[in-house]
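Self-study notes.
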Amino acid sequence: PNIDTYNFTAIHASFDLKMKNKTTVLGLMSGSSLDGLDACLAQFEKIGDMWAYHILESTTFPFPKDLASKLKNSPTLDAQSLLALDVTYGLWIAKNISSLVEHADLI
């Protein structure tokens, strides 16, 4: 199998082993367009032998122009600047995800 199939299979197997009858999952994705961070908060529930899901919240958090520019230019950064960007990006993600979780009334 190719690497994508292998990774999906490994993630899927891990997902099945760790889940009980009901769980809430946060999915995040950011593509090369640098338009923003897509987030989906979903609840999965096992009913018999089947899994059902319900999307609790989903949104796109647009990147601020300065952050998008830094991310676009990240391949040219030196190690220290790249580490600083990693922290900045991580904090930006955390702030936005916190607001999503609060809006879904999960905290």
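Second protein, same conventions, sequence then structure:
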Amino acid sequence: TDNSTIAIGVKTDSLVEKRQNISLKVDVLSLENLNAKYLIVIGAFKEKNNAIGLCLQMLKNGYKDCHVIYNGTSLYWVTYNSYHSKKSALNDFNNLKLDGWIKRIK
């Protein structure tokens, strides 16, 4: 049993190391180009770099569906994902225990 514990530890360490070497890129999307009706918004910023910073944190923490969306007027929304139904958005919101809100966009 001692050997399997060590093997698991080594495996975990290598996964963490590989994850840290991944280069992350955040694109700013336009609200008018989205097909969905609902978003999970986890932050709203006037400064684009602040929104990108939060999105990068989320991506580093494993939330691969994080995006920055410009709302067309003055804010950059950091969103977890986009959805066609409110029910789907609520499911993810509750299951992931995200701090934010669900926004209807269409």
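Instructor comment on the second fold: The chain is about 40% helix and 25% strand.
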